[in-house]
């Protein structure tokens, strides 16, 4: 247990300037927890990009090992629900923000945060899904809970060529929805159509200040972008439709009026993956096992190694990553 492993450590000195170093650690350096895990795969989400670049205050405890997602094998457990050899998945719970995260050979976590690795997935596939994909599933489940189905009309997915967006397109099309994929990367139209998008919309149509209400264009939405984009998605939603909001890639603001809510009965559904309760997580992972086509998951995934994480973090914040990045720890 005390063998050395590599970790990415973000730290900052009194000058508040953030540093990112690859360091060697041993298990004795890890934070408190009741399950020790060998990390086999992780991923780079937008939030991990923010943590490593320092572009937004994701890290709230210094120093920190970033990485909000991991899949691996339990090495030792002091939690009655887990034993050595169990294969597990971790998404969120403040890991990589306030508790040492996934970008290390080992993690020590609370057993209550873990879910079993679904039989349908290898650790690498589970991380190809990662928080982005599990959040896309939560968004789809939120739309279903609101009573919406493909029979109600099209669904729009914003940030479609990104991680949440790509998985949402793949899931919704498999479930029979007519998917309108909004993207700023027209060159990715063929990629999005291969994932199941029926139509491509230039994101510039949605990213500028718009009218309180517009033409009713879609019955539902999955929004990873926020700001004017989400406001315009709401303004274009059909009567009694709903939009699941999970992201802020354009901005955290929401310059909307109450018109879509009070004149068309539109619902805005908030989705938080980080603190979602265990029952919801288990259901989301069960649904991913059933509703995500493995061929499409593979089509939206790029595999990188541990040494490429920091570069990938910069690229994802700059909007330059397509689909999902999975990190094989090796
Ligand atoms: P990605 O970077 O992979 O995807 C974001 C996509 O948003 C980009 O690919 C791009 O899509 C689009 N985009 C980027 N910048 C802009 C902009 N200025 N204006 C309009 N669109 C833009 O990130 P993820 O998929 O990992 O995460 C997406 C969002 O969801 C993030 O804000 C993240 O923090 C949030 N999130 C929230 C979770 C929750 O629990 N609520 C969980 C997971 C993620 P395109 O090129 O197609 O236009």
Written overview of the protein:
The chain has 330 residues and is α/β, with parallel strands linked by helices. It has two domains: 5-117 and 300-328, Alpha-Beta Complex (Quinone Oxidoreductase, Chain A, domain 1); 130-270, Rossmann fold, CATH 3.40.50.720. 28% of the residues lie in helices and 26% in strands. It has nine helices and 15 strands. The chain has helices at 46-53, 123-145, 163-174, 189-195, 227-235, 259-264, 278-291, 294-299, 309-317; strands at residues 5-12, 18-25, 35-43, 69-77, 87-91, 106-109, 115-116, 155-157, 179-183, 199-202, 218-223, 237-245, 267-270, 301-305, 324-328. Strands 3, 4, 5, 6, 7, 14 and 15 form a seven-stranded mixed beta sheet that branches. A six-stranded parallel beta sheet has the order 10-9-8-11-12-13, with helices on both faces. α9 links the parallel β14 (301-305) and β15. α2 (123-145) packs across α3. The protein is globular. The two termini are 18 Å apart. The model has no long low-confidence stretch (mean pLDDT 96).
Features:
2 domains; binds NADPH dihydro-nicotinamide-adenine-dinucleotide phosphate; 6-stranded parallel beta sheet; 26% strand; Rossmann fold; 330 residues
Layout of helices and strands:
Layout: E1 5-12, E2 18-25, E3 35-43, H1 46-53, E4 69-77, E5 87-91, E6 106-109, E7 115-116, H2 123-145, E8 155-157, H3 163-174, E9 179-183, H4 189-195, E10 199-202, E11 218-223, H5 227-235, E12 237-245, H6 259-264, E13 267-270, H7 278-291, H8 294-299, E14 301-305, H9 309-317, E15 324-328
Parallel strand pairs: 8-9, 8-11, 9-10, 11-12, 12-13, 14-15
Antiparallel strand pairs: 1-2, 3-4, 3-6, 3-15, 4-5, 5-7
Bound molecules: NADPH dihydro-nicotinamide-adenine-dinucleotide phosphate.
């Amino acid at each position: 247990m005390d063998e050395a492993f590599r970790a990415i450590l973000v730290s900052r000195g009194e000058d508040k300037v953030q540093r990112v170093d690859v360091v060697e650690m041993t298990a004795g350096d890890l934070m408190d927890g009741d399950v020790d895990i060998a990390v086999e795969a992780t991923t780079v989400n937008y939030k991990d990009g923010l943590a490593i670049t320092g572009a937004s205050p994701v890290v709230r405890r210094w120093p920190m090992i970033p990485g909000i997602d991991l899949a691996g094998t339990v090495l030792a457990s002091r939690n009655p629900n887990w034993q050595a050899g169990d294969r597990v998945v971790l998404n969120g719970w403040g890991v990589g923000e306030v508790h040492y995260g996934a970008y290390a050979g080992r993690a020590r976590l609370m057993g209550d945060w873990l879910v079993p690795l679904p039989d349908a997935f290898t650790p690498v596939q589970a991380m190809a899904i990662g928080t982005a994909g599990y959040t896309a599933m939560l968004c789809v489940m939120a739309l279903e809970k609101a009573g919406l189905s493909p029979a109600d009309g099209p669904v729009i997915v914003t940030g479609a060529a990104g991680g949440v967006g790509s998985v949402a397109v793949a899931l919704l099309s498999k479930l029979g929805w007519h998917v309108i994929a909004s993207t700023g990367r027209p060159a990715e139209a063929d990629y999005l159509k291969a994932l199941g998008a029926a139509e491509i919309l230039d994101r510039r149509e949605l990213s500028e200040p718009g009218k309180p209400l517009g033409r009713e264009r879609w019955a539902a939405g999955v929004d990873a972008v926020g700001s004017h984009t989400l406001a315009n998605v709401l303004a274009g939603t059909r009567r009694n439709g709903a939009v699941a909001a999970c992201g802020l890639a354009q901005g955290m603001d929401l310059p909307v009026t109450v018109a879509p809510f009070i004149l068309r009965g539109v619902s805005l559904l908030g989705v938080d993956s980080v603190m979602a309760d265990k029952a919801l997580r288990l259901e989301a992972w069960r649904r991913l096992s059933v509703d995500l086509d493995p061929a499409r998951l593979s089509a939206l995934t790029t595999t990188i190694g541990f040494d490429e994480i920091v570069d990938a973090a910069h690229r994802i914040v700059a909007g330059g990553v397509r689909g999902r990045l999975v990190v094989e720890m090796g």
